[in-house]
Write a sequence for this structure.
């Protein structure tokens, strides 16, 4: 087991190195750089000024030197400076992480706490009106784009309450905090909850048809014991996989949600930085997201072993 | 009894008048909450060329002179002293002298002197050690030889030749005076000014905060305690925020005509105005290579334009047709209607224009059986893309089959600079409603923003002739002739001049939206909240 974990950790490092190269090269392949965009705002490109600015930002150096400069800085904890704000990249990124983490955490919580129970109910009540109703809800969750849902929520909020949640870093009341974080989290988590529900349902249906479930029933176990103790415990493995994958995909959904709800998190910041070709911000943010995804995958794998005694990673 | 009634009526009317007067008396305090359309590249007005920077940062600064903030139309008559107490032209109109205000302090407490004026303009002219990263309006000062201080509170601009329009350029929101002791880099991130509001913070993509300058040299001003700009790039979210009352004002001149309808329907008490913003939508033509090196094809294209259709589709009829200069009544230099309509393509009979255009196309070798295939390049932004699509549709009527070539903003100017386009749809904003700014910037040989490299030495001479003219009536006639010639040469065909809306809540007082520039009216020192 220990050797397996070490191997996975080494693989994680290799993956992160590969990602760093891909991010770096892809960003340089995209036409235009920060200097083009800065001059775009001025309505012209002055070749001499452009060359000066490229020199000032180190963009005139070879791609290898630029990469080594970045990765060397990253290993020392120096993320460089944002080309746009001219502030340390770390100072720009750090305050935004808790905002997005809170939002993503709440969205995942919403997804799991709604998706799993409803999936179980839908499976247990298979073929009933309740099952059909829940399947309609899950299908709509998968079909509605989160930006549309977000706008709809905002419009309904203005129409019903005469106000809408505008981000405030220090909400004064619980109601305000709820509006600022929970409403957008629900908007982005709805799709994820729908997916979790569908996976839970199908997984539960498969398990409920297993022989050992029949045996449990024959032994006189109560329905709730059969459903929640025997079936759910085994059905939850694919659900955890999906939640793990969803955690990675969530960042895509958050870009739209943060834009619609005007939340200054890292997802929206990443898009803005990309628009400006603010390399230090984009590179470091994508690396951060890559680390989160790789760690999430690793955690899911470790959770398998914890949840299913049959799974034992051997050397 | 009758006399008592008269007295009572008189007392009541005095009370009524005084209560009106009281109601009109500006109230102190409050934070003006405005949403901002995007995150500006920096806080340095001199280094940027978008009013996304002027709107939040103009209140931090003062100019030497400025356009009076409660007069909607910028003109020489509406220029008032700011950091300069007075100004005077020399007899030969080659020196413009300013007497500066004494006792003015920068927000960091240092005194303002003529050295700051010299520093600012030396930097703008590229003459100082310290350099701006970008200097988009360097050409505004082409005629200035140098700026010479005379003691701490007097300064003179020495010119190569008379240029009456210099005063107009100095009054623009684009021409604040910067402090000598603060580096250009710091001005991009933590600007220091002498203006009514002090800079507090600029969080990219989040907010910009300004606070009242208690030591402002204009006693009793500003009325507001501060201004907060919340950056909301998503228009729907921003408008919903305004409708729900979470913002006191929309971003100036940013509400499109269709959105204005939504605002009026959902916030009927909001005060909304629609004004020209001195931004023209035009076509840039690559006349250096086929097929548009052929003047006949360029003229045919200009004749094919149905400008009213553009305006009716995009602005529900609320935009203006004109030449290079902003049309009247907002614009000061527009050609008379009959002169405008005498230009090919501006006449009211579109079918006749297009018939003429088809003949020109046939002369160039194209016709119903042989269409000309071209690409219309434009930036991937709705205000560019939408008119480009209408243009493509209209060109079909003269045997031109055009495809839309959408270019990402980052690549637009490089593409234009290397002439990698046939036709381009472009927007040109003018900071000052003055021919010097518009002609030299967009049509002068060698100008950085003359994207088409249009260069006509005869017209160039006329540019200089109008520029030195001190008689406004004579200058106007010259300007009309130049504008007409530019349109006839199809230098950069102007399709329309747009109008946009601004809304604010009824308790916001003292807002004036300028009708011939979107760059000069954001000092906010007279704005107050009636609540």
């Amino acid at each position: 087991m220990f050797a397996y974990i070490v191997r996975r950790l080494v693989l994680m490092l290799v993956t992160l190195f590969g990602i760093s190269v891909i991010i770096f090269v892809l960003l340089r392949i995209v036409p235009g750089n920060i200097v083009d965009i800065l001059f775009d705002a001025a309505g012209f490109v002055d070749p001499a000024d452009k060359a000066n600015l490229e020199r000032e930002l180190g963009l005139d150096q070879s791609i290898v030197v630029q990469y080594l400069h970045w990765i060397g800085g990253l290993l020392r904890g120096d993320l460089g400076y944002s080309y746009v704000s001219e502030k340390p990249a770390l100072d720009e990124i750090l305050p935004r992480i808790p905002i997005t983490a809170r939002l993503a955490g709440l969205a995942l919580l919403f997804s799991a706490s709604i998706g799993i129970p409803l999936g179980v109910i839908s499976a247990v009540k298979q073929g009933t009106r309740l099952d059909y109703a829940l399947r309609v809800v899950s299908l709509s969750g998968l079909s509605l784009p989160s930006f549309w849902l977000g706008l709809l929520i905002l419009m309904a909020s203005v129409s019903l309450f005469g106000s809408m949640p505008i981000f405030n870093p220090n909400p004064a009341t619980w109601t305000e905090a709820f509006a600022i974080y929970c409403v957008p989290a629900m908007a982005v988590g709805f799709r994820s909850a729908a997916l979790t529900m569908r996976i839970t349902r199908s997984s539960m249906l498969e398990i409920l048809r297993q022989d050992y479930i029949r045996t449990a029933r024959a032994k006189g176990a109560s329905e709730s014991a059969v459903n929640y103790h025997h079936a759910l415990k085994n059905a939850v493995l694919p659900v955890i996989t999906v939640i793990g994958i969803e955690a990675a995909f969530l960042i895509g959904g958050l870009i739209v949600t943060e834009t619609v709800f005007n939340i200054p998190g890292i997802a929206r910041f990443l898009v803005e930085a990309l628009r400006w070709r603010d390399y230090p911000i984009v590179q470091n943010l994508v690396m951060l997201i890559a680390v989160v995804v790789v760690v999430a995958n690793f955690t899911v794998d470790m959770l398998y072993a914890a949840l299913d005694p049959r799974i034992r990673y051997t050397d | 009894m009758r006399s008592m009634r008269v007295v009572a009526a008189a007392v009541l009317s005095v009370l009524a008048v005084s209560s009106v007067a009281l109601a009109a008396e500006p109230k102190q305090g409050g934070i003006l909450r405005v949403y901002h359309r995007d995150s500006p590249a920096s806080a340095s007005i001199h280094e940027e060329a978008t009013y996304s920077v002027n709107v939040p940062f103009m209140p931090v600064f003062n100019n030497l002179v400025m356009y009076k903030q409660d007069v909607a139309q910028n003109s020489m008559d509406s220029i008032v002293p700011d950091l300069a107490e007075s100004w005077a032209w020399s007899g030969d109109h080659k020196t413009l002298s300013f007497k500066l205000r004494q006792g003015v302090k920068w927000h960091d407490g240092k005194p303002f002197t003529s050295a700051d004026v010299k520093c600012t303009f030396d930097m703008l002219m590229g003459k100082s050690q310290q350099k701006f990263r970008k200097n988009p309006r360097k050409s505004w000062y082409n005629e200035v030889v140098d700026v010479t201080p005379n003691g701490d509170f007097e300064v003179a601009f020495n010119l190569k030749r008379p240029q009456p329009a210099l005063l107009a350029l100095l009054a623009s929101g684009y021409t604040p005076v910067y402090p000598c002791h603060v580096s250009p880099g710091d001005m991009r991130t933590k600007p220091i000014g002498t203006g009514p509001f002090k800079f507090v913070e600029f969080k990219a993509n989040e907010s910009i905060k300004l606070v009242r300058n208690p030591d402002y040299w204009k006693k009793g001003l500003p009325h507001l305690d501060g201004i907060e700009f919340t950056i909301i790039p998503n228009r729907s979210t921003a408008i919903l925020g305004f409708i729900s009352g979470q913002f006191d004002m929309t971003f100036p001149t940013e509400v499109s005509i269709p959105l204005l309808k939504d605002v009026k329907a959902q916030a009927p008490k909001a005060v909304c105005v629609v004004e020209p913003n001195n931004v023209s939508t035009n076509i840039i033509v690559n006349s250096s290579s086929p097929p548009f090196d052929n003047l006949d094809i360029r003229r045919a294209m200009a004749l094919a334009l149905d400008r009213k259709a553009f305006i009716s589709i995009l602005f529900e009829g609320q935009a203006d047709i004109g030449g290079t200069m902003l049309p009247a009544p907002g614009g000061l230099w527009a050609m008379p209607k009959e002169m405008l309509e005498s230009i090919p393509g501006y006449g009211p009979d579109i079918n006749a224009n297009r018939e003429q255009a088809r003949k020109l196309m046939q002369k160039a070798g194209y016709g119903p059986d042989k269409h000309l295939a071209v690409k219309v390049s434009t930036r991937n932004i709705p205000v560019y893309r939408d008119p480009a699509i209408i243009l493509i549709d209209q060109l079909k009527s003269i045997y031109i089959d055009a495809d839309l070539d959408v270019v990402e903003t980052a690549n637009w100017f490089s593409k234009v600079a290397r002439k990698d386009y046939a036709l381009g749809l472009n927007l040109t904003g003018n900071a000052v409603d003055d021919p010097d700014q518009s002609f030299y910037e967009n049509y002068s040989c060698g100008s950085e923003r003359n994207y088409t490299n249009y260069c006509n030495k005869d017209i160039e001479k006329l540019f200089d002739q109008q520029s030195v003219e001190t008689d406004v009536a004579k200058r106007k006639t010259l300007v009309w002739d130049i504008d007409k010639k530019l349109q006839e040469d199809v230098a950069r065909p102007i399709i329309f001049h747009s109008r946009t809306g601004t809304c604010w809540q009824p308790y916001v007082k003292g807002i004036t939206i300028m009708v011939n520039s979107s760059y000069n009216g954001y000092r906010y020192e007279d704005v107050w909240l009636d609540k």
In short: Chain B has a mean pLDDT of 93. The radius of gyration of chain B is 25 Å. Chain B touches chain A at residues 39, 41-42, 47-50, 131, 133-136, 185, 188-189, 203-206, 230-234, 236-238, 240-241, 243-246, 266, 408-414, 417, 448-449 (CB under 8 Å).
